[in-house]
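Hi,

Apologies if this is the wrong queue. I'm a grad student, and the batch job for EGF-like domain-containing protein from Mola mola produced an output file that my downstream script rejects. I'm not sure whether the problem is my script or the file. Here is the sequence I used:
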Amino acid sequence: MMLTNDIDECATPNICPSTTTCVNTVGSYYCDCGSGFIFNNSECHDLDECVAGRCSPYASCANSPGSFSCQCTAGYRGDGVTCVDEDECSLAQQCHSSALCINLPGSYNCTCQEGYSGDGVFQCSDVNECLVANGGCRNKATCVNNQGSFTCLCQSGFILVNKTLCQDINECKERNNPCGLNEECKNTDGSFECPCQVGFYRPGGGTECWDVDECNQSQVCPAFSYCFNTNGTYLCDCWEGFQGNGTHCQDLDECVMGNFTCPENSTCTNIEGSYKCTCDLGFSVNGSECLDTDECSLGLIPCPAFSNCLNSVGAFVCDCWEGGSLRFAKCHISQDIVFQILTKVDKD
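Support response: The file is valid. Your script probably expects a header line. Output copied below for reference.
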C-alpha cells in the first residue's frame, strides 16, 4: 500500500486574498473571511445574521458589516438571542387599584373588577347596581349599594335566600308556641296572628281567649236533646226514647224494637220519646195488671130480652133462654115457653 502526504495549499503565496486567512484541510483548503463574513466568488461578503434567524422570535435584529445585534421587544426580557415573557403584573402597579392585571405574552391587560367600570388603568368607578332592576333584589327586599358591590336587605319577618330573594318566615313553624293558650297561630306575610281557636272568644279587647258556651246560643243542638258545654266545644245528647243520626234525634219505637214492659192482656203503643201500655178490650187496669172485666156484673152490656149475660175471660156472651133463638140481635121464644117460665117464677 502506497502512502501519500497531504499538500498544504496554504503554503502557496497569495492563494487567498490578503483580507482572508487560508485554512488547510485534508486534501483541500478554504479562505476564512472571519466572523460575520462569508467567502464567495473570491470575495468576502457580509453575512446577514438577521436573515439566518440568529435572534429570538421575540427580538428585533439589526445587521451590521461583520456583525449583528438582537434586542428583546417590549414585554420580553433577555439578551436578544433568548427572550422570555416579562410578567408586568408582578412589577410595580400597572393597573388601577380596583382592577385586575392579567399577564399576556409580551403584554398585559387591566380589567376593572366586578362592580366597577372604566379603562382599568386610570379609572375604575363604582357601579350602582341598585339603579337597574333594584339590583335583582326581590320580594320586598331593599337594595343597598356598596363600593364594588351591593347588598339586599330584608324587612322584619323575612329571611334572605340566594342573596337576592326575601322569603317570608313562617313563625308558626319556626318559633316554639308563639301564641297563647286556646289561640291558633296563623302565618301572614312578614308576620303572624294569634286569633282564638274555634269555640273560644276574646272578650272586650282582652288578651286571653275564653270558652264560648255554645249551649247558651239558640238551636245549637237538635230538638229532643240536651246540650252539654265543654272546653272549646259542646256535646248534644238525645233524650231518653230518642236516638241521634248525626243531624237530629229520632223517636225510638220501643214497641217495634221489643224494648218495652207491658202486663199480660195489654197492647204497647209508641208515643214520642216513650210508649204506653193499654189493656186489651175486655180487660181493665188494676195496679200494674190488666184483669178481666166482668161486663155482666157491672151492667156494662145490655143483653136483649129473654137472654142471660154470661162473662168470659176478656169477653162476654148474651145467651138466649132455653128454647129461644137469636135473630137480628134479639131472642125469639114461643108463647108456651114464656108461659112456662112465668108459671115457674110464680111458684118460686
